[in-house]
Structure prediction request, 118 residues.
Amino acid sequence: MTSENPGPWNEGNPVPLYVITGGSGPSPKGFNLVTLIVARASPDASMQPEQASILTMCAYPLSVAEVSAYLSLPFSVVTTLLSQLVEDERVEAIAPVPVAAYPERGLLEAVIHGLRKL
Prediction:
């Protein structure tokens, strides 16, 4: 094969992940697997196909883990793509609901003490 005729496309050769993310882009924000992503814009023709797919699939909230699974891309690549979309205000990242804080030990002891008196 010559450089003029590289031959047929071989699907066995994956695209390097840095090509998908555009090399060094914005640093990934504080995403975790359960951060919800909601599209705030429609895809346009000038976008990368992966980013357009994210905007299409996130018409309804999806977690970062779901987006990663649907795109068959690693979490780190998806978070880089999402960081670019958040920076461009095309998607909104909704932090997961924090785990409820435990009540103070003194309050629990007072409740137990009160229950024992019953």
About this structure: The longest helix spans residues 75-87. Strands lie at 36-39, 62-63, 91-94.
